[in-house]
Design a protein that fits this description.
Blueprint lengths: L1 E6 L14 E2 L2 E2 H12 L4 E5 L3 H9 L19 H14 L6 E5 L8 H11 L6 E7 L8 E3 L5 E3 L16 E10 L1
Parallel strand pairs: 1-4, 1-5
Antiparallel strand pairs: 2-3, 5-9, 6-9, 7-8
Helix pairs in contact: 1-4
Protein name: Pseudaminic acid cytidylyltransferase
Keywords: Nucleotidyltransferase, Transferase
GO molecular function, one term: N-acylneuraminate cytidylyltransferase activity
Length: 182
């Protein structure tokens, strides 16, 4: 079984209610649910939340809410891995045989169904254990600066100071949308 798990905690400190805040006419979480459903990749799309209002919104957009997330993994210190492991354990105990799990963040309104499908295609290749969305840094990371203890700045990689930016290696970073795993 291939499962999408969308973590959506109710108690965000920085942006209260962010998972269901309106974003261009829809609750933020709606975009992740729709992309998951449209991708055709999943047997089940599950939202893991501790919040009944988020659960109601998730159900309106076609996600399942088979459990309420326990308080022990619903605070500021809970990790995404804690949430995914809880959901995977719950599914296994309920008789589900998991082949692939995809964590899709509720706050990823630009996640696309075709990119989820590309991630699944990647993770099903021999020797590949995980896949995730990534994007390029807009500027060369080799030119990154840091503030020193004295308040001045210095380069992280001073050996690249005199190299033309077009000659520096392009770097990517996690786009924070989804993660596929086995």
């Amino acid at each position: 079984m291939r499962v999408a798990i969308i973590p959506a905690r109710g108690g965000s400190q920085r942006i209260p209610r962010k998972n269901i805040k309106p974003f261009f006419g829809q609750p933020m979480i709606a975009y992740s649910i729709k992309a998951a459903r449209e991708s055709g990749c999943f047997d089940r799309v599950i939202v893991s939340t501790d919040d009944l209002e988020i659960a109601d919104v998730a159900k309106q957009y076609g996600a399942e809410m088979p459990f309420i997330r326990p308080a022990g993994i619903s605070d500021d210190h809970a990790t995404t891995m804690d949430v995914i492991q809880h959901a995977a354990s719950w599914l296994a105990e309920s008789g589900g045989k998991l082949s692939y799990i995809c964590c899709i963040y509720a706050t990823a309104p630009f996640v696309r169904a075709d990119k989820l499908a590309e991630g699944l295609e990647s993770v099903t290749q021999p020797g590949v254990d995980y896949a995730f969305s990534a994007t390029t840094f807009p500027f060369p990371i080799q030119r990154a600066l840091k503030v020193t203890e004295t308040g001045t700045v210095s380069m992280f990689m001073p050996e690249h100071q005199n190299i033309r930016s077009q000659d520096l290696e392009e770097a990517i970073h996690d786009a924070g949308q989804f993660y596929w795993g086995t």
